[in-house]
Amino acid sequence: ALERTFSIIKPDAVAKNVIGAIYNRFESAGLRIVASKMVHLSKEQAEGFYAEHSERPFFGALVSFMTSGPVMVQVLEGENAVLKNREIMGATNPAEALAGTLRADYAASIDENACHGSDAPESAAREIAYFFTAEEVCPRTR
Ligand code: CMP
User: What is the rounded CA–CA span in Å between residue 106 and residue 115?
Assistant: First the structure.
């Protein structure tokens, strides 16, 4: 099915200057970027986005990392976009990520793991709405 998913290029990957390289992975896999912007998250924005992890031991480190520099946030559209993006990213822990995935190529650790992608269509809808208004998402007309 035609789906949308939400993606973040995290501060470590932005610092490595691989935004374009990562966008190329999305486009080469048939995903279209239908919304995109650079943001430097506030503590409140990061805490709100990751609220489901607020009781986890890594929450403080996660919020600190995600506010350490700018990120790129984007909406990707395509057939099975949620699963396809997760395949492009590889496992959360780069030590477990398959060769050729974003995490294998660009991530240093499970904490600084280059990218985020929604885990299901329902979370994608929530995460897209957290960062983008309906008008900011631009499906292709040609
Ligand atoms: P992300 O998909 O952005 O969602 C939450 C993030 O927490 C995750 O990627 C990891 O970067 C980070 N994290 C750190 N430790 C863990 C862990 N043990 N399990 C899951 N996520 C973790």
Answer: 9
ipTM (interface pTM): 0.97
DSSP state string for 44-84: HHHHHHTGGGTTSTTHHHHHHHHTSS-EEEEEEEEETHHHH
Active site residue 40: no
pLDDT at 139 exceeding the cut of 90: no
Whether ligand 1 lies within 6 angstroms of the CB of 92 is answered as yes
Of 32, 1, 44, 12, the closest CA to residue 110 belongs to 12
Radius of gyration of the chain, Cα coordinates, nearest whole angstrom: 14
pTM: 0.98
For ligand 1, atom 14: residue with the closest CA: 111
58 is in an annotated binding site: yes
Total Cβ atoms within 10 A of residue 100:
10
Kindly report, residue by residue over 64-96, the tens digit of the pLDDT: 999 999 999 999 999 999 999 999 999 999 999
85 in a labelled binding site: no
123/28 Cα distance (integer angstroms): 24
